[in-house]
Amino acid sequence: MELRRSWHEWEVDGRDRRVVLVVETGLEMRPGHDGFDSDALDKLISDVTAEMRASPSPIDRVRIVPQLD
Length: 69
Hints:
Helices cover 25% and strands 36% of the residues. The chain has 69 residues and is an alpha+beta fold. The protein has one domain.
């Protein structure tokens, strides 16, 4: 899996709080751009979803972001 870092963030809306798993990746995520690989992106999404479900703490959302250099 092309994964550089991951961390948790909170989204707070009044009394509601959602935990977001943020995953940073070096994969090209824009279809039509050089280096885009839909199979690799699908695998990343599948792996992250499995990680979310296996987490001992509840995770409400996943956000995949481009790797910062």
